[in-house]
Write a structure and sequence with these properties.
The chain is mainly α. The chain contains eight helices and two strands; from the N terminus they run H-H-E-E-H-H-H-H-H-H. The protein has one domain.
């Protein structure tokens, strides 16, 4: 009985670790490879679903059909590369340990996997219809309570997934740089704000 409970507890703990600290299992080159595959898959889903991850933390539906497929793929890579480069530079400044580029870039790529979950969620037809067509009608048309609740729930799920991604990015930074506490938190906040602005600027040059 005790062995069964112990095995059950271990499996539950392992699942929790995969969700909130996958870097315990994957780091360096393995995390980089897995992260790149997920970024590519996210871009492909975005292209077929008509939405873009146009920034470090942003995701928006798009009505334009003139945006080439490579832009949807580039969105994720631009956000990942900018954040990784900024965190690598910051980590080297604030950490007394050796900070390796492969660790930062690898774990940051893997940390973006909730974006893939968002892309899958946005591919659900009913979700797309509510997000794309319900909210623009709020200004001048009546929306039923059910429509409003479904739309609001969809937005909340996306926000929670983005928060999850930020938490993973922070965890990846602390693990790869061996930093923690207020210094790590303040540095990460500054970097994510700078990364969001810089990614927007770069994307504006690609798709005005």
């Amino acid at each position: 009985m005790n062995r069964t409970l112990t095995a059950h507890s271990r499996n539950r703990y392992d699942f929790s670790r995969w969700l909130f600290n996958p870097f315990y299992y994957l780091a360096g080159g393995k995390a980089l490879a897995a992260g790149i595959v997920l970024i590519l898959a996210t871009g492909a889903l975005s292209y077929t679903g008509g939405f873009r991850f146009d920034g470090v933390l942003d995701v928006h539906t798009t009505a334009s059909s003139n945006i080439p497929a490579w832009v949807y793929l580039a969105d994720g890579f631009i956000a990942w590369i900018i954040m990784s480069a900024l965190l690598l530079s910051s980590g080297k400044i604030i950490s007394i340990s050796r900070v390796r580029a492969i660790d930062i870039f690898g774990t940051q790529a893997l940390a973006r996997w909730p974006a893939f979950a968002i892309a899958l969620f946005l591919k659900i037809p009913v979700v797309q219809s509510y997000l794309r067509f319900i909210y623009p009608k709020f200004a001048g048309a009546r929306v039923s309570t059910v429509e409003f609740m479904i739309s609001l729930a969809s937005y909340l799920i996306i926000v929670l997934l983005i928060i999850w991604m930020v938490a993973l990015m922070y965890r990846a930074f602390t693990v790869s740089s061996n930093v923690k506490g207020a210094k790590a938190i303040l540095t990460f906040i500054g970097v994510i704000l700078a990364g969001e602005i810089l990614s927007k600027v770069v994307l504006l040059y690609i798709v005005p």
